[in-house]
Amino acid sequence: MKVLVPVKRVLDYNVKPRIKADGSGVDLANVKMSMNPFDEIAVEEAIRLKENGPVEEIVVVSIGEQKAQETLRTALAMGADRAILITTDERVEPLGVAKLLAKVVEEESPELVILGKQAIDDDNNQTGQMLAALLGWAQGTFASKVELADSKANVTREVDGGLETDALTLPAIITTDLRLNEPRYASLPNIMKAKSKPMATKTAGDYGVDVAPRLTVTNVSEPPKRTAGVKVADVDELVARLKAMGVPA
Amino acid sequence: MKTLVWVEHDNKDVKDATLATVTAASKLGEVHLLVAGSGCQSVADAAAKIAGVGKVHLANDAAYGHALAENVAPLIVSLMADHDAFVAPATTTGKNIAPRVAALLDVMQISDILSVEGEDTFTRPIYAGNAIATVKTSDAKKVITVRGTAFDKAEAEGGSAEIETVAGEGDKGLSSFVKADIATSDRPELTSAGIVVSGGRALQNSENFTKIIEPLADKLGAAVGASRAAVDAGYVPNDYQVGQTGKIVAPEIYIAIGISGAIQHLAGMKDSKTIIAINKDEDAPIFQVADIGLVADLYTAVPELTEKL
């Protein structure tokens, strides 16, 4: 079985984003970029399915500027087998990404595509579901457990009230939640080895799909600031404040 | 503009998230509701009473009982021939279904909106709520998910909408429901509670959570939340998690106990009206957003607080 894992290069999750003064977006010049944390979990899950299950090959794919190849190298160092880089200088929205990925799926015929549930930059939580729709496949979103058996995937999903398990007919789409696994670190020898693993480079134009953005971002601004609070000296003062707010007790 | 709103329910009752979504949708125009489920006539009856609703579409079929996206998305797409926007709450159900609908309609979804600025312009949070983007769509049909805490709830009574039965294609045979493991709790629901008491890593284990956090929550009639650290360490179930990857809450009072205040956690609670932090580290980032801070050891301060309330 072949697994396709799309990964995204995003602002590192520890970095506090700086908003550009002209309101055009977040300043990404000279800041640390990393693989989207949910995508690391997706890569890890694919590797575990290869180590303990029916998966034979893991192909990772990323769409974006040339530098996204660093993100793909990270995935290769973790244990993916080969990579596809689709370069574009334009902003591509989840719908466009899903359309490009649908073309990659057509070429590669994986039986499973594992994506992160959301990218921590645009926080959309859309691409996996959109890809499933375009392919007419089943989707197992927000997965915290994946079991493959008899041309089915049993996926335990994190839903609002607790957990829900659905059985999906393969081929299928899975999107990862935080609890699915703990991603491994790439070891130095594996980072060296990853440099010789194959990486195909294409451009978004090669796929002949229209990925022009449908949404225009007219402004990006700071969220409203909270005013500085006070520190109370002891529990009694806190109780008094709570009671002043009309807290039932 | 005619909007179609996804009614979040458990085949018995309408969930609160629906009411805020109705308010957001009403800013776009005439509100129609979709109740898709199995044995859910009572949900449709309750939905018809929500103030400001023009019509309720009821799709009652075993295939829709668990809101599997593969089955309900085609149903929604067929109803979208007569509607201009599909609006769903940004719950796990809404987030699962809406993008599938959007792709089938070939439109870009606008996720988790905070406000409606015009019929094609919306604001939404990006970067874990560290920035607010204003976005304008050029799509003819709109697919939108709504952040429940950003809109007032529509009145659950007062309307008298007509209920129209609709049929879809039913089971697409791609997926099936196996089981659910739903956490039971007598406390209020986290996302709609007026007061939330949250614990973090400093609680050290689940016994302390039960012994220290829960009595305070019960005294206040509050819901219990947790930071990711507390969830990952197994002190509480996953669905307690407040943050970028958990639930977004905006209660009247949010009490953060033993939570440092990482940006991913703040993303889930910084719109709370009053934030109270109890932490023994006076440099913890949580104090930068807290209205009232108490620098103290939670193991003595919280039981004392519970007792004195």
Automatic annotation (TrEMBL), chain A:
SMART domains to which the protein is assigned, alphabetical: ETF (SM00893)
Entry-linked InterPro entries: ETF_a/b_N, ETF_b, ETF_beta_N
Pfam families with a match to the protein in the record: ETF
Electron transfer flavoprotein alpha/beta-subunit N-terminal domain location: 23-211
Keywords tagged on the record: Electron transport, Transport
PANTHER family reported for this sequence: ELECTRON TRANSFER FLAVOPROTEIN BETA-SUBUNIT, ELECTRON TRANSFER FLAVOPROTEIN SUBUNIT BETA
Family under the similarity heading: Belongs to the ETF beta-subunit/FixA family.
Protein's UniProt name: Electron transfer flavoprotein subunit beta
Annotated organism of origin: Stakelama flava
TrEMBL record, chain B:
InterPro entries (alphabetical): ETF_a/b_N (IPR014730), ETF_a/FixB (IPR001308), ETF_alpha_N (IPR033947), ETF_asu_C (IPR014731), ETF_asu_C_CS (IPR018206)
CDD domains: ETF_alpha
Domain Electron transfer flavoprotein alpha/beta-subunit N-terminal: 3-181
Keyword annotations from UniProtKB, A to Z: Electron transport, Transport
Protein's UniProt keywords contain Transport: yes
Domain of life, per lineage: Bacteria
Short name of any one Pfam family annotated for the protein: ETF
Presence of keyword Electron transport: yes
Name assigned to this protein: FAD-binding protein
Organism: Stakelama flava
Lineage, highest ranks first: Bacteria, Pseudomonadati, Pseudomonadota, Alphaproteobacteria, Sphingomonadales
